[in-house]
Amino acid sequence: MKENVVLVDPCGRPVESIRISVTQRCNLRCFYCHREGEDTKHGKEMTPEEIHRAIEIAALFSIRKVKLTGGEPLLRKDIIDIVQKIKSTRGVEEISMTTNGILLTKYAGKLKEAGLGRVNVSLDTLRPKRFKQITGAYALGKVISGIQTAIKTDLIPVKINMVVLKDLNDDEISDMIQFTKENGLVLQIIELESKDETDAYNKYHVELEGIEGFLKNNAEKVVTRQMHHRRKYLLRGGGEVEVVNPMHNTEFCRYCNRIRVTSDGKLKPCLLRNNNLIDFVGSIRKGASTDVLKALFTEAVKRRAPFFT
After folding, report:
1. Residues 303/276, Cβ–Cβ less than 8 Å
2. In whole angstroms, what is the distance from residue 116 CA to residue 97 CA?
3. CA 41 – CA 35 distance, rounded (Å)
4. Which of 43, 31, 241 is CA-nearest to residue 135?
5. CB of 146 within 8 A of CB of 108?
6. In principle, which of 120, 140, 165, 294 could form an S-S bond with 98, CB 3.0–4.6 Å?
7. Residues 122, 216: Cα–Cα separation, whole Å
8. What pLDDT, on the 0 to 100 scale, is given for residue 279?
9. 56 phi and psi angles, rounded to 5 deg
10. Judging by DSSP bridges, how do beta strands 240-244 and 231-235 pair with one another?
11. Model-level pTM greater than 0.90?
């Protein structure tokens, strides 16, 4: 199949990566979880073949990077098959996954063999009781073990996703920097995200400017990434920290370069919107041609617009 040029949305943003939620199921109950922007529950997940087909179409538009998310992707018994099929897709250069890490000890080696390149592991605290308070489970040890196994199996760089929560874990920034530095990890400090300013959001939200000021004062180099214009701080004495602050951040939206697919197969132009979805998998199940599927993908990109302007 002939490759096309990179798709560009009406705001001039090229689409260069795709983020696929493969399930809504999870073995944790993090109270702040936004479920990849999916606001309805369902029981019909995409099959490995359907996921593969979606990636094939994305690759025709020169999308080279694929991220698998959830829920918890490792709860899918066919996750290895999914990764293998994506890896076999012509044009795909990178496959990564966001996971809570609990099952990584079991699956890391198999994922690497299947073609997974790297992982992001969600870890908001290094304290067992706080971990239970945030996630609903005493499973910190399993997550740490999963991270160590990911390193040993070369799923690197391993990135740690830490959502900062007011009066809950915002006093652990230095500890988390030290932990990631000692273990050769990349720390991503993430702002609590919500499309609506709920009571939970107002209670736990932390502005990240103060943290960024601390990082800047302790950095020997600051790098601005192309995606979202996120800043990466290379700290004196070692340590790498990236700050993800999407809320009310027009710069973040302006440089967003990804398209999303929900776990039930809908193209999702924006994390925070659900009024512009396109039923992609429905057309796959009806046997739609490549041209029809490409047209749906193109339409989804046309519907992309910054949430914060």
Report:
1. yes
2. 8
3. 10
4. 31
5. yes
6. 120
7. 24
8. 96
9. -55, -45
10. antiparallel
11. yes
* pLDDT attached to residue 7: 96
Helix (H, G, I), strand (E, B) or coil at 267: strand
CA angle 207, 261, 79 (to 5 degrees): 100
267 neighbors 261 (Cβ within 8 angstroms) = yes
**Residue 28 carries which DSSP code?**
-
- First-to-last C-alpha distance (Å) of the chain: 37
Q: How far apart are CA 256 and CA 19, in angstroms?
A: 12
Angle between helix 140-152 and helix 128-135 axes, rounded to 10 deg: 100
Measure the CA–CA gap between 99 and 234, rounded to whole angstroms: 24
The pLDDT of residue 220 is 97
Cα–Cα distance measured from residue 18 to residue 115, given in angstroms and rounded to the nearest whole number? 17
d(CA 38, CA 64): 24
Whole-number Å distance between alpha carbons of 122 and 240: 16
Q: Which residues pair with 191 in a beta bridge?
A: 164
Residues of the chain with pLDDT under 50: 1-2
* Measured distance CA(188)–CA(122) in Å, rounded: 9
Question: Edge-to-edge, what's the strand order for the sheet holding 266-268?
Answer: 219-224, 231-235, 240-244, 186-191, 159-164, 118-122, 94-99, 65-69, 17-21, 258-261, 266-268, 278-279
> Quick one: tokens of 65?
């990077």
- The span from the CA of 83 to the CA of 89, in Å, is 10
Determine the pLDDT at residue 1: 42
How far is residue 164's CA from residue 176's CA, in Å, rounded to a whole number? 11
User: Rg (Cα) of the chain, in Å, rounded?
Assistant: 19
- What burial class does residue 86 get, using C-beta atoms within 10 Å of its C-beta: 0-12 exposed, 13-18 middle, 19+ buried? buried
